[in-house]
Backbone:
């Protein structure tokens, strides 16, 4: 399945609702290795049905570093790779990972209900949380984050369709500000570096 990758390069534009954020190239060793939002600003909020049987919002996790990921549980290539990388990052971070929360927003509301998300994400890490809602609710969140998602034909005859979607990770600091955009297939050590950097920055 082809994916639309939001790759952080020098000064690309990412539309966040009515706001435009400039992404700078990766910074020096003392900063983030991923693309950065300049200036950092409040991450778009939302309230969706969570895999924890409650309404789920990034604002619930102020004081933690939040990763917002967009994907779907029937993805057969990109999404499992990203979740596997994050699982490895959690292991490398040890107890520090307790101050990081992944929110996995589905782009496939027809098939990804809260129970399906919980079962799928728990197989990677029990702390990972999924979020879903109505098609209109999810489209609003996708627009706010500048995410592209559309239904396409599946290469797997056993599946009725696939979802072509943006696959970068959004990093939100402890104060709820959008800080970084991590492209697909970023090395695990770089993800760990950026998460630890944001944790220390807000300590």
Residues:
């Amino acid at each position: 399945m082809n994916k639309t990758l939001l790759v952080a390069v020098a000064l690309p534009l990412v539309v966040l609702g009515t706001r435009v954020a400039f992404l700078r190239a990766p910074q020096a060793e003392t900063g983030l290795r991923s693309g950065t939002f300049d200036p950092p600003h409040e991450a778009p909020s939302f309230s969706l049905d969570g895999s924890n049987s409650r309404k789920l919002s990034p604002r619930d996790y102020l004081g933690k570093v939040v990763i917002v990921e967009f994907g779907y549980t029937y993805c057969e290539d990109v999404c499992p790779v990203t979740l596997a990388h994050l699982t490895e990052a959690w292991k490398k971070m040890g107890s520090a990972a307790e101050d990081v929360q992944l929110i996995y927003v589905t782009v496939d509301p027809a098939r990804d209900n809260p129970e399906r998300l919980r079962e799928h994400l728990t197989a990677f890490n029990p702390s990972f949380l999924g979020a879903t809602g109505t098609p209109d609710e999810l489209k609003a969140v996708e627009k706010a984050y500048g995410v592209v998602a559309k239904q396409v034909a599946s290469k797997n005859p056993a599946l009725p369709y696939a979802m072509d979607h943006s696959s970068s990770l959004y990093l939100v600091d402890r104060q709820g500000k959008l800080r970084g955009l991590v492209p697909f297939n970023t090395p695990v050590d770089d993800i760990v570096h950026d998460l630890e950097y944001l944790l220390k920055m807000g300590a």
User: Anything to note?
Assistant: The first helix runs from residue 78 to 93. Residues 157 and 187 are 32 Å apart (CA to CA). The helical segments are 78-93, 114-122, 135-145, 188-201.
